[in-house]
Specification:
The chain is built from seven helices and ten strands. An eight-stranded mixed sheet has the order 1-2-3-4-5-6-10-7, with helices on both faces. α3 runs parallel beside α6. Helix content is about 35%, strand content about 30%.
């Protein structure tokens, strides 16, 4: 699992240097916002490993919003990874809302049952998520750093799982395991060093931190008639 996640991390970074040259498809998302779908050009190693990759992002008043959804589908088994990408602070609730808005389009392009990993950045990028997780974590562990297994079990019973379960239900998925690369506890006095754009006043005294959060997904069992 760790090897797969490290490969996924490389791919998310490589996307920033990969152009989307094929013709884009646009959809009116309401409120003057347009949802744009572009095929990511796969070259070199990516073309050997992946069968397709698509980026979904939003434009409002001719400005591209700082949020996109990227999906890569592996050639050998059609397994896909869905990543939520933002470079500046954003409410996690907004990220989830846009993801939910995009699910129907995603299901037109990919087999949702084959999406087995969800990725998003450290809670530091989402003040509402940072606040919720910090409060819940402190009640159980204080500000101590726990091992990966304990972190996984904590996140599985946290409000994060509840929120993800709600938006993933339309594609019949649920979170089943978490991994946070380079997990650490980041204290308030160090926030600006990691992300200068944040409003520190909106954050708790400490937050769970790492290079990204990976959520292993499982298909929900269909109810028998």
């Amino acid at each position: 699992m760790k090897v797969y996640f490290n490969i996924a991390t490389f791919l998310f970074i490589s996307f920033l240097f990969t152009s989307c040259k094929k013709e884009a498809k646009s959809i009116d998302a309401g409120d003057g916002t347009v949802l744009i779908k572009k095929n990511i050009e796969l070259t070199g190693y990516l073309s050997d490993f992946y069968s397709q990759a698509i980026s979904y992002h939003w434009i409002k008043d001719k400005d591209t919003l700082d949020f996109s959804i990227n999906i890569y589908e592996r050639k050998k088994d059609s397994i896909s990874t869905l990543s939520l990408i933002n470079t500046k602070p954003l409410l996690f609730e907004v990220a989830l809302s846009k993801t939910e808005q995009c699910l129907n389009l995603i299901q037109e392009d990919f087999d949702a049952s084959k999406i087995n990993t969800l990725y998003f950045k450290s809670p530091l990028y989402f003040s509402d998520l940072a606040m919720d997780l910090s409060t819940e974590y402190e009640q159980e562990f204080g500000a101590s750093i726990v091992d990966n297994q304990s972190l996984d079990q904590f996140l599985l019973k946290s409000s994060l799982t509840t929120r993800l379960y709600k938006i993933l239900m339309p594609i019949h998925k649920k979170p089943t395991r978490y991994s946070m690369e380079q997990f650490d506890i980041l204290h308030k006095e160090n926030y600006l060093e990691s992300l200068p754009e944040i409003n520190v006043a909106e954050y708790p005294d400490f937050t769970l931190h790492g290079t990204g959060v990976y959520v292993r997904l499982k298909n929900l069992q269909k109810e028998s008639n």
